[in-house]
Amino acid sequence: MTEDAPAPRRRGRPPRQDAADGPDARTRILRAARTEFADRGYDNTSIRGIAKAAGVDAALVHHYFGTKDEVFAAAVELSFEPALVIPTILGGPPEGLGERLARYFLSVWENPATRAPLLAILRSALTHEAAAKVLRGFVLRRLLERIAADLHVPDATFRAELAASHMIGIAMLRYVIRAEPLASADPEDIVAMVAPTLQRYLTES
Fold first, then answer.
1. Do both 33 and 93 map to the same domain?
2. Using CB atoms within 10 A as the burial measure, which of 1, 56, 82, 177 is most buried?
3. Are 86 and 143 in contact (CB under 8 A)?
4. Residues 28/56, Cβ–Cβ less than 8 Å
5. Is the same domain home to 95 and 23?
């Protein structure tokens, strides 16, 4: 090999210069993954396609996330941002939990920046078990179980599943099926109707 010849690129762990730019590269990968899943669906999205869209090597995607399922899970988390939201939901008075949770959930779906990838995620979950498993695990364990566990109520998992079923059902009818009058209802009207039920699921003994 001559002095001018480039060194072969190693697979797996990223080279030192990629690692130095890790946070930026990771963010690009996540954003590209969310767009790819939104545009192509779960089945037609690949690690190679995500890497190309992010402008990185596929090895770097594997380094940060491992499998396509793990990239998918991270893309879901990017839309919901639980680390930022959960303290806000739990930080107020316990009697307002249902309202805060309902308002947050609807705000994520009403935001055009997050609605499209969430629609793709939800549709993928209906047709692909791996996507459904990721969505179940994220919505239940990363969001609702953490909220219910903080309140120390009995049957937290069962209560979390009831709350999840209620909110995902609303998302299906309003944003996927677009059933009227729910599809055109004012979000505040939905919050007012749904919040007491979520409150009962998550806080009443």
1. no
2. 56
3. yes
4. yes
5. no
CB 78 within 8 A of CB 30: yes
Q: Whole-structure pTM over 0.85, yes or no?
A: no
pLDDT, tens digit (0-9, with 9 covering 90-100), for 68-105 = 888 887 877 766 666 666 777 777 788 888 899 899 88
DSSP alpha helix (H) spans, the chain = 16-20, 22-40, 47-54, 58-65, 68-80, 82-91, 97-110, 112-127, 129-137, 145-151, 156-171, 187-203
On the question of pLDDT at 205 being above 70, the answer is no
CATH, residue 92? 1.10.357.10
Q: What is the CA radius of gyration of the chain?
A: 20
Please state, rounded to an integer, the average pLDDT across all residues of the chain.
79
